[in-house]
Amino acid sequence: MVVVEADERVHVRGLHVRFGRVEAVAGVDLSTYAGQATALLGRNGAGKSTTMRVLAGVVPPSAGEVVVAGHDVRTATLAVKRAVGYCPDIGGLVPRATPWEHLQLSARLRRLGPSWESRGRDLLERFELGDVAHRITAGFSHGMGRRLSVVLAVLHEPEVLLLDEPFDGVDPIGVEATMDAIADARARGAAVLVSTHLRELAVQACGSVSVLRGGARVASMTAEEMRGEEGARAYRGLLD
Amino acid sequence: MPTAASWTERPTSRSGRREGVGTAVVDLVTLLRFRARTARRGRARGAIAAFVVLTLAVATVPAWTPHAGSGDRAFNLLLLLPTGMAGVVLLAVTSAVASGGGRELMPRDPGQIFPIGSTTDHLGALVLTPLNIAWLLQAWVLLGSAAYAVGHRSLGTLAGLQLGLGLWLVVATAIGQFAAWTIEGIRRTAHGVPIVRMLTVLVIATAIAMQTADLLVDALDAAPTSPVLIGLLDAPGPRWWTTVLLLALAAVAIVALGAVPARWAGRRLPVDEVELETGHRRPRGLARSPWAALVRTDRASVWRAVPMRRGLLVLAVGPGLVAVLGDLRWDSLTLLPGLVVSGGALLFGVNAWCLDGRGGRWRESLPVEPGLVFDARAWVLAEFLLSASALTVLIAGLRAGVPTPAEFTAMLASVLVIALQVVAASMRWSILHPYAADLRSARATPAPPLAMVGYSARLAASTTVTGLVFSGLARADDWRVPALLAVPFLCWSAARLLRARRRWSDAERRADVVLTVTA
């Protein structure tokens, strides 16, 4: 029986993920609480995206305890998917569907009430996607795709928001809208995990930071400790 | 404030050279080596060995069969060979035009970082053309018919004829490629799409008018293939040498000529793809259920893709027209659904999960039972295949008269059995062998070339056998016979489909598929 604290929305202990002979995640421990945002930092291949995929219910864990919003990801995958909003690291969009059709699919499968339409329109406007709401996404730029992925992740006001590289290739207005979305999620009590290579943006968006290396967590600290030149040096030291 | 030059200098270094034939050939070899390294070595060698052995067998064995080179049937086959040679050209043109210039040696996305010129692209498409079961079958039919027609009394004649026909296949493929680039170039001009559509309608109408006036066979007989065949039958005499030399020169000339429209087309944007990607869609209301939402999304992925729409039209209309022109009867028409359904599955079905592109990761994070997602995808694939078959049967039936109850039941059973058979096989392969594929371009395929040959061969074999069974049953006295015999076929395929569904429900297997197709 896994013991999870009352406001602990993400509980990960000894997570291992293996793809054949490759161990992508080798013993990650992680906790994120309601109203808290945690940044996942680390080099390429550190296991950040794989950890996010496990939390989103996309990849099953090979070993370890993973509880998201009170549901075991292994046995209650559908409940986890209902509680989570996930922005994948790459792509994340069906190429021949429009943004509005993406929102409709999510709304129907998540059984959202009629208010989702006004929220969807508002989000598209905030992320400056209102004028392309009915254009198919195959012709979108990388930044537009990232922005829409964030919109899709936050549409249903999830208990746990997982954003994997949400700032990658996004213009300043998109970054600002994403920051606002993270702040909104925290304000209504959601737990937020942001995986990124952009340290300064990570510390701006989150209150705490976990650094992964070689598939395992090597450090956890407050965002303040990661800020500025000193934070950059500390982070650099954790990567080798 | 000093400013730098705002233009680039005319390149003079080696990296800025113009693409000549030599450069294109060198680049082609490099790309072929690169692609060969990404294929499984053992499997690729096996496939090449099988191709060589089968081709040699087809080109020789029929010459040693009874009555080869002597009977009436052999003589009739010899008379039909020039028409067959013309037919090969027609099929090569149709196939290359439908695929928007032939297959890509390097898919568009990974290929864009390499300096691949249009001549290299053109040569690559030519080299990949034989990796297609339709091309292979027509080549084997031509070589096999020729072997049977001349027999083995003069080995020199047989060898000379087959060598010459091999060259003819190269010429036909090069003509097809030249035509494809030209049509693609026209299609990419300002009013190109309606012009090409009008041209297509005009060609079809002409063929039907000629058939109605009993002129089509005469026109095919008048094709300049008879002198070529007569020259090849003179092997190893002087006329044979002249014909072979002319064929070789023609092959080189047409291949080189094909680079011109390839460059012309390559400089222009694919209009229909761009229109599709930038056009706005009228929003619809919210789907009534999760099932309807999934089906709607999958349908959009299929029907908004250029290769699927164009491929389906060619697959459905082409065989239907051939049946009309060839005046096929209902018992022969049962063979058509196999051809159409197999071709339809090769457009995306054999790698069905690649439809979502990189959106697969987001879709997998949505709260829905995996079984329902599987059902929706299989349903949309079945719809796609059945609509193509229905259109073919409708066109083909225009001249076949009113079917007897047994013929009608056999046709219906044949369509349903083959569709379920192909859907089950496709969904199984989609889980066992997923590939990352971008289906935006008309030239894209859902799997690598060698895998496509394997899939098409297996589909062609199984659906032809099924079609033949129902062709026989169409002659039954009682209409209930084909209906009853369809039941075990349907049960078998349904069981295989359910097995694939169980595999998809396994979280680890599904994660493998999703991560592979979205890579």
UniProtKB/TrEMBL annotation, chain A:
<protein>
    <submittedName>
        <fullName>ABC transporter ATP-binding protein</fullName>
    </submittedName>
</protein>
<dbReference type="Pfam" id="PF00005">
    <property type="entry name" value="ABC_tran"/>
</dbReference>
<dbReference type="InterPro" id="IPR003593">
    <property type="entry name" value="AAA+_ATPase"/>
</dbReference>
<feature type="domain" description="ABC transporter">
    <location>
        <begin position="10"/>
        <end position="239"/>
    </location>
</feature>
<dbReference type="InterPro" id="IPR027417">
    <property type="entry name" value="P-loop_NTPase"/>
</dbReference>
<comment type="similarity">
    <text>Belongs to the ABC transporter superfamily.</text>
</comment>
<keyword id="KW-0547">Nucleotide-binding</keyword>
<keyword id="KW-0067">ATP-binding</keyword>
<keyword id="KW-0813">Transport</keyword>
<dbReference type="GO" id="GO:0005524">
    <property type="term" value="F:ATP binding"/>
</dbReference>
<dbReference type="InterPro" id="IPR003439">
    <property type="entry name" value="ABC_transporter-like_ATP-bd"/>
</dbReference>
TrEMBL record, chain B:
<feature type="transmembrane region" description="Helical">
    <location>
        <begin position="336"/>
        <end position="355"/>
    </location>
</feature>
<feature type="transmembrane region" description="Helical">
    <location>
        <begin position="44"/>
        <end position="65"/>
    </location>
</feature>
<feature type="transmembrane region" description="Helical">
    <location>
        <begin position="311"/>
        <end position="330"/>
    </location>
</feature>
<feature type="transmembrane region" description="Helical">
    <location>
        <begin position="123"/>
        <end position="143"/>
    </location>
</feature>
<keyword id="KW-1133">Transmembrane helix</keyword>
<keyword id="KW-0812">Transmembrane</keyword>
<protein>
    <recommendedName>
        <fullName>ABC-2 type transport system permease protein</fullName>
    </recommendedName>
</protein>
<feature type="transmembrane region" description="Helical">
    <location>
        <begin position="376"/>
        <end position="398"/>
    </location>
</feature>
<feature type="transmembrane region" description="Helical">
    <location>
        <begin position="410"/>
        <end position="431"/>
    </location>
</feature>
<keyword id="KW-0472">Membrane</keyword>
<feature type="transmembrane region" description="Helical">
    <location>
        <begin position="195"/>
        <end position="220"/>
    </location>
</feature>
<feature type="transmembrane region" description="Helical">
    <location>
        <begin position="77"/>
        <end position="102"/>
    </location>
</feature>
<feature type="transmembrane region" description="Helical">
    <location>
        <begin position="240"/>
        <end position="260"/>
    </location>
</feature>
<feature type="transmembrane region" description="Helical">
    <location>
        <begin position="163"/>
        <end position="183"/>
    </location>
</feature>
